[in-house]
Design a protein that fits this description.
This protein is of the alpha+beta class and 145 residues long. The protein has 3 helices and 6 strands.
Length: 145
């Protein structure tokens, strides 16, 4: 199951990269069309498009970095929570990998989160049955895969 989850997330990251690259290409194309057919009167419009391209490029760079970090995760079977662990808790299911957010996988809601999040920093090294506290509430680790 963990291997299929890994592949699914890998595909999601690839899809996100492809989508952002297509957006950039479409914006560049429309920016070139504007430049050739409308003249200097629309300089502000071209600048706005260029700013949007820069913003999307930043997003693309972040996703590419996430994918690179995600690709380094190994299939280690450990009893304790490490980077790459799939953790079921009494507050929800988490995959410690990259900052992707909530996904639906095989009918389960899973939060794909970075090892830098406060939650992961709290549970790193914990094992099945351990109790941890988050926002003044206690939760139990049900399973570590």
């Amino acid at each position: 199951m963990k291997e299929k989850l890994y592949q699914y997330i890998h595909e999601l990251l690839n899809d996100k990269i492809n989508y952002l690259q297509k957006l950039i290409n479409d914006l560049r194309s429309s920016n070139n069309d504007t430049k050739s057919s409308m003249g200097d009167k629309y300089e502000t419009s071209r600048e706005m498009i260029q700013q949007e391209i820069v913003n999307i490029q930043k997003q693309l760079n972040e996703v590419i970095l996430q994918k690179e970090q995600f690709s380094k995760i190994k299939y280690l079977e450990k009893d304790s929570v490490i980077i790459g662990s799939y953790v079921k808790t009494s507050m929800g299911n988490f995959y410690v990998a990259c900052s992707l957010g909530e996904i639906d996988f095989n009918g389960e809601k899973i939060f794909v989160i970075s090892s830098q999040t406060p939650l992961v920093q709290t549970i790193l090294g914990n094992k099945k049955g351990d109790i941890f506290e988050m926002n003044n509430q206690k939760f139990t680790i049900v399973e570590v895969i």
